[in-house]
What does this fold into?
Amino acid sequence: MIWNKKYECMPRQELETLQLKRLKEVTQRVYQSVPFYKQKFKERGVYPDDINSLKDLDKLPFTTKSELREGYPFGLFASPLKEIVEFHTSSGTTGKPVVDGYTHKDIITWSEVTARCLSCAGATAKDIIHNAYGYGLFTGGLGIHYGARLIGAKTIPISGGQTTRQVMMMQDFKSTILTCTPSYALHIAEVAKEMGIDLRKLPLRVGVLGAEPWSENMRKEIESRLGITALDIYGLTEIIGPGVAQECPEKNGLHIFEDHFLPEIINPETGEILGEGEEGELVLTTLTREGTTLIRYRTGDISRINYQPCRCGRTLARIEKIKGRIDDMLIIRGVNIFPSQIEDVLMRIEEAEPHYQLILERKKGLDELTVELETSAAIFSDEVRKVEELEKKIAQEIEETLGLRVGVRLVEPKTIQRSMGKAKRLIDKRKLK
Ligand code: ADP
Ligand code: ZN
It folds into this structure.
């Protein structure tokens, strides 16, 4: 078990002293070794020596995803290429990939933070970790792998796909922890059921699930179908991969490993730093990374931060479950909405299966959203009227909860594509016309 109490339970003042020391080091580092940052600092008239308190953070410039793309592939590395031992890239969900280069020390840091995540979820050396995150350039597979190895747990590096085989191995190897995306966890459960295997009866007890937004009600759905405690893990390639933050069994926010990653929440429109509890964009500064060292990186992810101590004993701040990416926010007739909010309502509906997608279209110049949701086959064998009534009920539920009028279309089981990794929730048909 890797619960690094020295850092995870550090008194805040001590933690802040450490953060400041590290912040000074990284500003020096990027100023000296990354021409992009030297230029940016100069343009802003700020120099590493200007950083004398954590409050000085707002003097530093932000770094954006498009800047990282401009530096493709190695332009922003803060270490010489000869020191890089591994590359990863973002999955390119929203465009050209971003490259992360890791030094040997970075891989050690990465192992430490993902080991902390797994430990936080209750993993020990005795656990058999069924790691169904994709192995390869995607950070999920190897990131978890390194952490599991540091704990001394037994890893099954199964990666995503071949779901029947996944279920068979889970049963035969008696896996105790499942690591994958929440949508893939549900797919595994679905395939197991078809194979006549009840996952709830297997030794599997915890899921460390992340890499995509998932709602509270989706958690309940996963927990009951798999018979596990499902905990959220957050990370992004640009910063390190998985291992930035992890939910503890209190299920009330994800502890962010602040000794390695310095968080801020900003107003995404103005860049202004927001206070504790206010919703905005998460910004991260890497405090210990070498290969890719980022200053005030704008993650594009929406959350809030909570500095109150947690009952688990960790003093590390918690970020609220990520609502979604700013890019994924829909504005429908003036209502701002994230797919995860719609999901949360859908998963309350008894007849709903946990598979849905959102279709965005433009009709007569207005954006219209249709929710496609799977339901049991039995409902379709009833009268058509029953289906229509249920569709109406769901639309009403969404309107009452979110103030948003949407169309609802119930579809037969297995109509919506299953994903091995990140689920694609939104189909934007507006650009096709
Ligand atoms: P890409 O941006 O191409 O998907 P990554 O694989 O690095 O590249 O994914 C990181 C992103 O995935 C995060 O910025 C965030 O939007 C999303 N993400 C990761 N973990 C979570 C999580 N636990 N909850 C919600 N979103 C998450
Ligand atoms: Zn906690």
